[in-house]
Amino acid sequence: MIVIVDERDLVKEGYQSLFNREGIASAGFRSAEFGDWVESVAPSDLKSVRAFLIGECSEDKVSPRAIRSRTAAPVIALSEHHSLENTLRLFETGVDDVIRKPVHIREILARIAAIRRRVQDDVVSYTEVGPMRIYTDGRDPEINGAPLPLPRRERRILEYLASNRGRRVTKSQVFNAIYGLFDDAVEENVVESHISKLRKKLREKLGFDPIESKRFLGYQLMA
């Protein structure tokens, strides 16, 4: 999920629509409500945030360093003022990058992926689980070197399970990562349908089911 902080509803809704077209969940906040949320949100929910985009907002309510104290997710400033002084000021607040608007949504996603790779000290944009190579940059996974085309929701679920390899994740955590924490238009049970279809496709290619599920405990990707 991408979190957008901006005082203007039109800006937040515009970005949310663009991210939705790319299959990326997002949520929008104004400065005051974001400050309260980031301080009180559960760590398990915060793990579903891929990045924070900071636009026009109150700086005393939105502190990149305060965000950093709770998560390593990239914090990116969206700047409408094209001056060196403004860019340097934004970097001094503690953001990871400054993007000048207008900008294509795919460039934002590429910059987020690049920052996350640096944070992880790893230039590899994929995780290998047995014969599976699961990418984190939007590409379809590969099984024994052959691409496995997946709908974007199923692909994102597989990416999320791979990023949590070795840990079990609940249905709520998967839902929050794929649809966002505040999407009331979609029922959480849709996760079960997506995972059922994903498991069937993986089973056909692998000969076994790599997703272990336990009632009340959640899902885990196995080698």
UniProtKB/TrEMBL annotation:
The keyword Iron-sulfur does not apply. One of its GO terms (biological process) is regulation of DNA-templated transcription. Residues 124-223 bind DNA. Keywords: DNA-binding, Phosphoprotein, Transcription, Transcription regulation. The modification 4-aspartylphosphate is found at residue 60. The keyword DNA-binding applies. Coiled coil: none annotated. Residues 124-223 form the OmpR/PhoB-type domain. Gene3D superfamilies: 3.40.50.2300, Winged helix-like DNA-binding domain superfamily/Winged helix DNA-binding domain. PROSITE patterns: OMPR_PHOB, RESPONSE_REGULATORY. It comes from the Bacteria. One of its GO terms (cellular component) is protein-DNA complex. Residues 1-116 form the Response regulatory domain. One of its GO terms (molecular function) is transcription cis-regulatory region binding. It holds the Pfam family Trans_reg_C. PANTHER family: REGULATOR OF RPOS, TRANSCRIPTIONAL REGULATORY PROTEIN TCTD. This is Transcriptional regulator. It comes from Tianweitania populi.
